[in-house]
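Reviewers asked in the last cycle whether our approach scales beyond single polypeptides. To address this, we selected a multi-component target totalling 768 residues and predicted its structure end to end. The input consisted of the following lines:
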Amino acid sequence: MFDFEFHNPTKIVFGRQTVARLDTLVPANARVLVLYGGGSAQKNGTLDEVLGALGSREIQQFGGIEANPTYETLMRAVELIREQKLDFLLAVGGGSVIDGTKFVAAAVAYQGEPWEILETYGAKVTQALPFGSVLTLPATGSEMNNGGVVTRKSTQSKLPFRSPHVFPQFSILDPDKTLTLPPRQLANGVADAFTHVVEQYLTYPVEGRVQDRFAEGLLQTLVEIGPKVLNDPDDDVRANLMWVATLALNGLVGAGVPQDWSTHMIGHELTAGYGIDHARTLAVVLPANLQIRRESKRRKLLQYAERVWHITDGSEEQRIDAAIERTRSFFESLDIRTRLHDYDIGADAIDALIAQLEAHGMTRLGEGKDVTPDVSRRILEASL
Amino acid sequence: MFDFEFHNPTKIVFGRQTVARLDTLVPANARVLVLYGGGSAQKNGTLDEVLGALGSREIQQFGGIEANPTYETLMRAVELIREQKLDFLLAVGGGSVIDGTKFVAAAVAYQGEPWEILETYGAKVTQALPFGSVLTLPATGSEMNNGGVVTRKSTQSKLPFRSPHVFPQFSILDPDKTLTLPPRQLANGVADAFTHVVEQYLTYPVEGRVQDRFAEGLLQTLVEIGPKVLNDPDDDVRANLMWVATLALNGLVGAGVPQDWSTHMIGHELTAGYGIDHARTLAVVLPANLQIRRESKRRKLLQYAERVWHITDGSEEQRIDAAIERTRSFFESLDIRTRLHDYDIGADAIDALIAQLEAHGMTRLGEGKDVTPDVSRRILEASL
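The resulting structure, written as structure tokens, was:
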């Protein structure tokens, strides 16, 4: 096991009817900016519920944060906060709104051009406004971690950042908030959480026994509830999806073990360049990535085959093939297509995607820093 | 799944040579009380290492905190802190020292007789001195939770308390600190962590899928490393034991699911009355407890049998019997005896033990509040 630090101070308030708890969670004298997305929080009543719970506090609203939140939009929130001297942020939405709120929280106090926060992956952040979240879409885990991803429209750059200063102070997880989600977003949430775990698990063994067991437990749970999420999302399925997605990326299963994240970095270029849903880019890239790098991931692929998919028959090569095939089938069973051509992207697109990876410094990816642009190219070719 | 809150702000610094990190973790102007136990931290050099890392800070020391720390001893530390106006506590030791430090941290600022903290199980604690820990004995999980247990010698009372104010700010987990531990303490650590997980898992099903998987992962890991802890504790075994024991009781596997804890409460009376090691009381009480309450725990016992012990053959009764037997054998394989008569305690002791449970308000124990004194009596009789 590697040495590690683990520190996650976010308070989770989990259960139905918990939005009312905002009244005790947000400081009584706070001047609050409520940030939300494209309007679903307005339509389904969550926004009204939030505003009601905040009572007589000074409140401003900022709607319109996009899926894959943009620097351009978020900087308008930063200006509003500075103008109105607001001092507490409340994200109401899914990963995009929470990621965006993290960036806004850090950018308000940033000395210099805030895009530097992303260019330096968060290393230059020294303070941030306090904020909380009301989660409406289980997927990214942003509600209980200190990372975010922001896109700059003008340059088609989608970059991640993280900082110990951008943990939410609290997150409210009410499984009933998922009742109005369309199947596409629920399926994306399952695929996103699944891939988050795989990025922290399917690398090489370091005797992180409990990290492996926890990762396998999350993957098994997603495999069990995945079909029900689309077809029969009862109370328990919704609750489990919400808690699993949070735990998939709260720092715990990745503490003390190698991490990959090359699938995410390659996937980000597909979203930035073609607007494909984040989770769908992962479902395209992951099976191909595991196939191309099967040698360096051999031992963990065999463990994954046995413990997650119960594949024990056949040669090592057959078991690895079967595990990768089951991974692809799992995504497809969620109505998520797993080939670039399903998204009308052909081989001719690959040069530009590789150029963008290089432009963003993504030239030594993966747990072994061996996913060079050439390896990324082979992964994309295998994704066609 | 039940509604829940989860909040664990303790920062974990895990790895070898991490004691030196105290210099950045403890405030530079802190007036520190270093608390430790019976002298092993002095003998093996950890105390010197800690004092060295604290540099030129104002430091006082308080040694002699017992296994099963006593109110009488801890109140002397409280006096010293008040006299010397110390403002930061550093526990160097195992669960007893950390539990004791939590009590001291809460008692210093307590208005009134601090024994009330225990009589009210921590509910009256409104503030505490900040503190951190350097863990030397993986077992209790106290290094990453907000609970403790204190014994009052004069009345043979051993009572638990918890409060959101007594999370350690940080805990340093250096697996090499376990190198000098005697086998008895290592075995106790395995049994203690195992029982902590069981208390939060072996109740009744509520569709807490990931909590179950995490609990089973911790138990499987303890079953795998248990024998090696005694016979071949290499670097990886030590590291895994330390991290598993911490995760066994940091609030995570118990969030949103029923919890039992009757084995602990009955065990506490055995320690208070007869001085038996805490972990050994658990190994005595747990198999009998599972046997007596097998009906109410039936579904989880069957799940435990299958997922932890891979018992799939036989009738339900046979599988439950086998799982309980494997649990007992596991403790015995750690050189821990699992019968009261192994500790020279006979049936004539049971009346007094039940009377103590009643005196401490322990009359409705367990996940169903149905472990009355009569049920506790049957459990003790089955432990003979």
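The interface with chain A takes residues 1-16, 18, 207-210, 213-214, 216-218, 220-221, 224-225, 236, 239-240, 243-244, 247, 252, 255-256 of chain B (CB under 8 Å). We regard this as preliminary and will revisit it once experimental data from Aim 1 are available.
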